[in-house]
């Protein structure tokens, strides 16, 4: 009997189901309920309302936030993948010094978001400790307003995020590169394929599954990022670097509007869910 | 023989001191005040600056001394201190509110003056009148009482305040500006002549930007954010005009080049102090604390810097914005209430404590009598100049929607300063529209 | 040769990109108050001072924060593995209907931001008296790590040939023995890489500990760093730099010491994805 039970697949999944149910599903349902309520941090009585969604979707700010979020996510993901791929291919050469690159990449990756923000706000400063602007002046250019014009500020939060996120992407792709059998390249070399052709016909297709997974993970991760932006710009100037998660944070902790913050959160969920399903669709059709 | 006696005496003395040393505990530690084995345990949420984690040794000494007196007076009680991080005011305050709602609030708390109204309104705070006496209650400046009084009862002690001024290079500028137009003229002249920034202020995306640099201008024109029913009116009638004017001035500063665009990202003193130190700025609009900071980083502060009231639209207008922190008792237990109130009075509330703390902390006291009775304040010209400005004091309204209005104004200011829009009126309309919709949703 | 040189140059560029922010922060953390205001800035401080570090260590409980972070990481790693290993085993070795769909559903949990669940959990915990409680906090950390850990471990288990199981089964091993004696020892690289991912994610959590802990003495370092930030009554850039370095030091030392191992573990565990 005992043995029989252990032969059932679900018995092994019970702990997982319990933890996810209590700490994800229940709060999640709660958030959805709150998003249809007029709750603030201090109200106890709540009424049912669609007002949160109507307000958010008709507000001018929301579309600005959406735009910023999409740019932030798209640019971060693109550059993390690209830079990660380039770095992975570089260290795959295994020349002397490649371990320094690996080391530096992993180091950036272990920096927590808040500290990333703190460090980069020092880097970007226009004051004497702003090293980037010092270099730029050395090169004979004018100071760059990293954090105080809308487009530069968006650029700056993306750069900081790419700095931190590339380590993960690079290592995963490096792992995938290592997994490509050497015979494939040897065979291609015999057939006289150029480096570029080898990259295009062997490396990329072989990397594809990892690139996909990587893209999903980075996208989700970037979508939920707010701590580094918070420490860098607090979402400003104006709302030029306010992404959805920061918007939710502001609604809850500055406006104390639990209902509206929850509605933001639900919109976030829907969006990242859509991303995930889209990618999954790509992957499914591929296999 | 004598030697021996001496030796024995020394040994006994040593033994005694080491015994008493062994029994003694530190009365005040960063996260505990009083007897560690006390029966009555109070909890308190206090900002870092008022704990032993405070930035400077003299602050720590002040807290250690004042808290130890409380601990000695109540050997059967102790306070467990939750130290709140300084940079996260809204988060700490929101958490405190949630705790108060669910009955988990600490027994007393350090609450930002523009949040305390919400605690009072919701009935989370306790009256302090019986622990203070009427004279003490009456001694506080009017702008503090506007916020912390409810039905004639004082619900929180407003421990200190600050005020906003225009700091200027007196060795460069003969006649400090009094109006907006003069400010821009002087700033441009300085930029031209000296090749420095004409004007700096922390106009980044944060509370300090509006509190320090928008509301004083807005209030000087008799602007009001909310009507007596708590309805937002900031974007209606004369208020709208006042806000449009105020934002317009700040925008003009940047557009004309009187202030660099950099101001739209400044959210701390550091970048301004960096410019001050390198002689690269002529005027800085900032708080009463700045003078001592300047004094810390340059040798000849007295010869270079002076301050005047903030320039206003017209020379005869005047208003200040006054921040500060309050202390409120949240406990339901009468015993704890008394103990908490006693702590607050000993550390911040009593006239002597407040004066002493203000000196140590570089704050302004909120009790009028201190400026008359304490020589440090009554005989110092600079202090009198600071205290005079408290007559024009204003506190941010204790309206639950204040945060929303502030946040919206910060965003609008950022957009205007960085050229994302030029339509000031539309921005003000948007502030009004958003605030109103939130007000209607929560009515 | 030209190719090699250009690769080396790229190595240099990439390393500078990743290391410059940290090196510059170290440089600032060793400067005196007046030197941080000097322009042009000096890379190697003229008078190297450790005062900033002393200041931060004396005035904040940075060491306590580090210790707290460490504890939370340990709890999270153990808790997550405890839950994720059996689940990953089930997904790897059992066949059942809708398996891939279920796995996908679990992965979907991964996309939920901590900010979304933080608020209800706060209300929920304050009723249960689980605020300021490492057990309560670790459970949420664990829940957040489970989806990815399960996914990673399943990949690792899949890579182990089923013939190994079959051989052990014939010897009469139970499922539990199979997992314990056959799979886990072989899946060590996958376990190691899961541990590393979990540790790094748990180390960087910010919002949850901030919401669910009020006691400064319980804060992990990601929240504790805020204690040194934002006191506008004084110049703080150099202190902030020192605090950042202190907060990063344990993680950086780990990376230095375990670099080879980390890479090996990650690549071995990740090949199958």
From TrEMBL, chain A:
Residue intervals passing through the bilayer: 9-29, 70-91, 103-124, 144-163, 263-282
One Gene Ontology cellular component: plasma membrane
InterPro entries listed in its UniProt record: MetI-like, MetI-like_sf
UniProt-listed GO biological process terms: transmembrane transport
Pfam families in UniProt: BPD_transp_1 (PF00528)
SUPFAM superfamilies reported in the protein's UniProt record: MetI-like (SSF161098)
Protein's cellular compartments: Cell membrane
Family the entry assigns: Belongs to the binding-protein-dependent transport system permease family.
Protein name: Carbohydrate ABC transporter membrane protein 1 (CUT1 family)
Organism: Halanaerobium saccharolyticum
Upper classification of the organism: Bacteria, Bacillati, Bacillota, Clostridia, Halanaerobiales
From TrEMBL, chain B:
Any GO BP annotation: maltodextrin transmembrane transport
Any one GO CC term of the record: ATP-binding cassette (ABC) transporter complex, substrate-binding subunit-containing
Keywords attached to this entry: Signal, Transport
InterPro entries: SBP (IPR006059)
One example GO MF annotation: maltose binding
Tree of life domain: Bacteria
UniProt name for this protein: Carbohydrate ABC transporter substrate-binding protein (CUT1 family)
Organism: Halanaerobium saccharolyticum
From TrEMBL, chain C:
A single GO cellular-component term on record: plasma membrane
Subcellular location: Cell membrane
Spans traversing the lipid bilayer: 7-26, 72-91, 103-122, 134-153, 182-203, 239-258
The keyword Aminoacyl-tRNA synthetase is assigned to this record: no
Superkingdom, natural source: Bacteria
ABC transmembrane type-1 domain location: 66-258
Predominant location category: membrane
InterPro entries registered for this protein in UniProt: BP-dep_ABC_trans_perm, MetI-like, MetI-like_sf
Keywords: Cell membrane, Membrane, Sugar transport, Transmembrane, Transmembrane helix, Transport
SUPFAM superfamilies associated with the record: MetI-like (SSF161098)
Membrane topology summary: Multi-pass membrane protein
GO annotation terms (biological process): transmembrane transport
Family: Belongs to the binding-protein-dependent transport system permease family. MalFG subfamily.
Stated name of the protein: Carbohydrate ABC transporter membrane protein 2 (CUT1 family)
């Amino acid at each position: 009997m005992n043995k029989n039970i252990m032969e059932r697949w679900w018995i092994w999944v019970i702990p997982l189901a319990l933890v996810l149910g209590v700490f994800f599903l229940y709060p999640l349902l709660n958030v959805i309920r709150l998003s249809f309520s007029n709750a603030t941090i201090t109200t106890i009585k709540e009424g049912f309302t669609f007002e949160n969604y109507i307000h958010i979707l008709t507000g001018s700010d929301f579309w600005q936030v959406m735009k910023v979020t999409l740019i932030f996510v798209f640019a971060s993901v693109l550059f993390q993948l690209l830079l990660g791929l380039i770095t992975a291919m570089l260290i795959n050469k295994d020349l002397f010094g490649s371990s320094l690159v690996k080391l530096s990449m992993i180091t950036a990756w272990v920096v927590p978001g808040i500290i990333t923000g703190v460090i980069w706000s020092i880097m970007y400063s226009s004051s004497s400790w702003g090293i980037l602007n010092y270099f730029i002046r050395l090169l004979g250019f004018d100071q760059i307003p990293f954090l105080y014009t809308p487009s530069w500020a968006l650029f700056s939060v993306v750069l900081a995020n790419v700095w931190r996120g590339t380590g993960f992407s690079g290592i995963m792709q490096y792992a995938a590169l290592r997994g490509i059998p050497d015979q494939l390249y040897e065979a291609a070399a015999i057939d006289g394929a150029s480096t570029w052709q080898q990259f295009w016909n062997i490396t990329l297709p072989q990397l594809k599954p990892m690139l996909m997974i990587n893209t999903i993970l980075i996208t989700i991760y970037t979508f939920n990022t707010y701590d580094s932006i918070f420490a860098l710009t607090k979402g400003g100037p104006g709302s030029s670097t306010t992404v959805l998660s920061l918007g939710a944070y502001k609604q809850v902790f500055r406006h104390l509007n639990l209902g509206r913050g929850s509605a933001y959160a639900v919109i976030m969920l829907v969006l990242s869910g859509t991303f995930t399903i889209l990618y999954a669709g790509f992957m499914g059709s591929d296999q | 023989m004598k030697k021996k006696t001496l030796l024995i005496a020394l040994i006994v003395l040593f033994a005694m001191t080491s015994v008493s040393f062994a029994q003694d505990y530190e009365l005040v530690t960063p996260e505990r005040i009083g007897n560690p084995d006390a029966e009555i345990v109070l909890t308190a949420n206090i900002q870092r600056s008022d704990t032993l984690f405070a930035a400077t040794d003299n602050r720590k000494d002040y807290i250690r001394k004042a808290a130890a007196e409380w601990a000695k007076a109540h050997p059967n009680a102790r306070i467990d201190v939750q130290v709140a991080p300084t940079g996260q005011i809204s988060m700490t305050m929101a958490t405190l509110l949630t705790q108060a709602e669910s009955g988990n609030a600490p027994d007393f708390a350090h609450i930002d003056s523009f949040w305390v109204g919400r605690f009072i309104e919701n009935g989370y705070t306790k009256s302090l009148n019986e622990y203070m006496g009427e004279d003490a209650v009456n001694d506080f400046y009017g702008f503090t009482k506007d916020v912390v009084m409810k039905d004639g009862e004082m619900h929180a002690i407003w421990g200190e305040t600050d005020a906003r001024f225009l700091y200027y290079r007196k060795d460069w500028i003969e006649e400090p500006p009094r109006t907006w137009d003069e400010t821009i003229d002087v700033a441009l002249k300085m930029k031209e002549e000296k090749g420095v920034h004409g004007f700096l202020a922390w106009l980044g995306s944060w509370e300090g930007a509006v509190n320090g640099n928008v509301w004083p201008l807005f209030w000087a024109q008799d602007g009001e954010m909310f009507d007596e029913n708590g309805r937002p009116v900031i974007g209606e009638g004369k208020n709208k005009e006042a806000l449009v004017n105020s934002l317009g001035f700040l925008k003009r500063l940047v557009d004309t080049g009187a202030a660099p665009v950099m101001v739209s990202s400044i959210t701390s003193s550091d970048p301004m102090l960096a410019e001050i130190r390198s002689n690269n700025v002529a005027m800085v609009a900032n708080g009463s604390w700045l003078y001592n900071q300047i004094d810390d980083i340059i040798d000849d502060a007295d010869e270079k810097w002076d301050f005047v009231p903030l320039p206003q639209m017209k020379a005869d207008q005047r208003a200040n914005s006054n921040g500060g922190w309050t202390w409120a008792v949240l406990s339901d237990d009468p015993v704890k209430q008394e103990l908490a109130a006693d702590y607050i009075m000993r550390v911040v509330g009593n006239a002597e404590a407040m004066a002493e703390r203000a000196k140590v902390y570089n704050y302004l006291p909120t009790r009028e009598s201190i400026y008359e009775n304490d020589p440090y304040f009554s005989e110092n010209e600079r202090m009198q100049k600071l205290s005079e400005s408290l007559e024009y004091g204003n506190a941010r309204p204790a309206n639950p929607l204040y945060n929303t209005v502030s946040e919206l104004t910060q965003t609008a200011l950022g957009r205007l300063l960085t050229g994302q829009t030029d339509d000031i009126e539309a921005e003000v309309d948007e502030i009004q529209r958003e605030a109103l919709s939130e007000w209607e949703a929560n009515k | 040769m030209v190719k090699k040189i250009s690769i080396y140059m790229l190595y240099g560029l990439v390393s500078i990109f990743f290391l410059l922010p940290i090196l510059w922060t170290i440089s600032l953390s060793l400067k005196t108050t007046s030197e941080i205001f000097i322009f042009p800035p000096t890379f190697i401080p003229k008078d190297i001072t450790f005062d900033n570090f002393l200041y931060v260590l004396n005035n904040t409980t940075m060491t306590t924060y580090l210790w707290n972070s460490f504890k939370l990481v340990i709890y999270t790693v153990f808790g997550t593995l405890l839950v994720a290993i059996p689940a990953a085993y089930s997904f790897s070795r059992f066949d059942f209907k809708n398996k891939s769909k279920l796995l996908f559903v679990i992965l979907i949990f991964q996309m939920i931001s901590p900010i979304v669940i933080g608020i209800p959990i706060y209300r929920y915990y304050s009723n249960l008296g689980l605020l300021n409680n490492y057990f309560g906090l670790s459970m949420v950390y664990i829940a957040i790590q489970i989806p990815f850990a399960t996914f990673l471990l399943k990949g690792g288990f899949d890579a182990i040939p089923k013939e190994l199981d079959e051989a052990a089964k014939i010897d009469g091993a139970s499922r539990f023995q199979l997992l314990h004696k056959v799979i886990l020892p072989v899946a060590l690289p996958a376990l190691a890489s899961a541990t590393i991912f979990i540790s790094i994610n748990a180390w960087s959590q910010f919002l949850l500990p901030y919401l669910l802990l009020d006691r400064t003495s319980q804060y992990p370092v990601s929240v504790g760093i805020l204690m040194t930030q934002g006191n506008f009554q004084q110049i703080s850039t150099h202190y902030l730099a020192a605090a950042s370095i202190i907060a990063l030091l344990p993680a950086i030392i780990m990376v230095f010491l375990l670099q080879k191992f980390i890479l090996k573990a990650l690549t071995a565990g990740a090949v199958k994805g």
